[in-house]
Amino acid sequence: MDLPTVRPHHLSMTVMQKQTMVIIRLGCSDGIEGIGEATTIGGLSYGEESPESMKLNIDTYVTPLLLGTNASNINWAMKVLDKHIKGNRIVKSGIETALLDAQGKRLGVSVATLLGGAVSDTLPVLWTLASGDTQKDIEEAEMYLANGRHNVFKLKIGWQPPALAIAHVTAIKKALGNRAKVTVDVNQAWAESTAKNGIAALQDAGIDLIEQPIAKENIEGLARLTQMFRVPIMADESQSDLQESFKLAKLRSADVWALKIGKAGGLYNVLKAAAIAEAADISLYGGTLLEGTIGSVASAHAFSTLNTMLWGTELFGPLLLTDDIVINRVEFSNARMRLPQGAGLGLELDLDKLDFYRRDGKKRIIVL
User: Fold this and answer.
1) In this structure, what is the dihedral angle of CA atoms 51, 347, 93, 47, given to the nearest 10 degrees?
2) Active-site residue, selected from the candidate residues 37, 140, 244, 314
3) What is the pLDDT of residue 47?
4) Domain 2-108+348-367: what homologous superfamily?
5) Annotated catalytic residue 105
6) Is residue 9 predicted with pLDDT exceeding 90?
7) Which one is catalytic: 55, 105, 154, 156?
8) 122-338 domain in CATH 1.10.10.10?
9) Is 314 among the residues known to form the active site?
10) In the chain, ranges of CATH 3.20.20.120 domains
11) 139-175 pLDDT, tens per residue?
């Protein structure tokens, strides 16, 4: 399904005018339905999975493996998928979310409760300024500061020449001053030699955090940059599966990790990655693949169980969309997102909206 965004969203690899999501409705023989979401950024521009491939793989490979499986044994169901399906972490995250949602409804508890319990029922949420226009970004930030919705702003800068990007960020930070934190995401766009000069300039401008300045494969270079500067460096694309997490921790390749359930392959795996980070004294940040409400709330349930997320979250995906497919939209206020109350994810689909925005107009439910 396709949902329009409130404005164009610039990244180093693409410009988003809409968000395409794969919504999973997983029916169980006891009449309970779980919902999940599999979403990536910009089709195939971000990673190996696209919305179209995810739907095809769910229909062709995931569904036959799950039919007849005990839906209440989530570990077993995911073990079956891991055995027979390589990669496809975003797909697996969406399926695991649906299984957890169904189990929470079955037991009358939240997904966070299934994961051990929420430490807090709200999470700090930043906003990404990604119009590409310096003055528009300043005005947007000022509006959100005034109404209290956000006080931390992230800038996507990898799509511009470095000198222009740095001037753009510097102007925004100067306008906002100490009233807001400003972070930047380079989205792997810089060579390591470019990053040395770029990060030095951003550090001098007072930027608070630098995300993934160089290619994800160059984790040794990321370690060199982390040791070179006092401004914290965050690993995003470099930190995906648990083996990469271990290697990053061993090399001390970043000060902060961006946790994403889609990148990790599900809620359980993202919490395992968080445990590795905590053991290595690496700070945590709740990332997003710009999921809609279902994926964002699933992330929030996982993140809410962590003792501390020093750098907050960027679970603003629902706010980037002009409409929603759930009946009760998530509450955002005072620069925080409130975890929905109720069993499972605490969400209910708006079936009319779902049918309106879906591409094929067909109803499809997996029944276990």
Assistant:
1) 40
2) 314
3) 81
4) Enolase-like, N-terminal domain (3.30.390.10)
5) no
6) no
7) 156
8) no
9) yes
10) 122-338
11) 999 999 999 999 999 998 988 899 999 999 999 999 9
